[in-house]
Design a protein that fits this description.
Strand order of the largest sheet: 1-2-6-5-4
Number of helices: 2
Distance between the termini: 74 Å
Helix content: 10-25%
Largest sheet: 5 strands, antiparallel
Strand content: 15-25%
Structural class: alpha+beta
Shape: elongated
Number of strands: 8
Length: 130
């Protein structure tokens, strides 16, 4: 397997699907660019109940269709507790790829992030009858 950026790995030079991308796996040391819609800081993911991990955490099997991914040391550390929160570009890219593969479930932040333009205001309502 080729090592890709310390986070995910691909196949042995065969044409295959790599984290939702068709075509040959990336060359060693490269990783396909994440989609332009980066997950926001504070966005959390947790492993799906149907995702299986090797004892050392470097292999993950799951998703639909089933996929086998090899994780680098940085990704293994992030997933030690069964999930992680996006804090930077690397964790956002990992979360996006694991979501696209169906290996994790999203856990969006409970409150809007400071950069989010969306805010909700909920207040009491009253009804008057004439």
């Amino acid at each position: 397997m080729t090592h890709a950026g310390g986070i995910l790995s691909g196949g042995h030079g065969r044409t295959s699907r790599f984290a939702g991308h068709a075509g040959p796996p990336p060359r060693p040391g490269t990783l396909p660019s994440p989609p332009p819609d980066r997950l926001p800081d504070g966005f959390a993911v947790e492993l799906a109940a149907t995702t299986h991990r090797s004892r050392d955490g470097h292999l993950m099997l799951g998703g639909s269709p089933p996929r086998l991914l090899r994780l680098g040391a940085a990704a293994v550390r992030l997933l030690e507790d069964g999930g992680f929160v996006v804090t930077d570009d690397a964790s956002a890219a990992l979360a996006r790829r694991l979501l696209d593969a169906g290996l994790v479930h999203p856990r969006p932040p409970l409150s809007p992030t400071p950069r989010s333009p969306f805010r909700s205001v909920i207040g009491p309502t009253s009804s008057t009858h004439c």
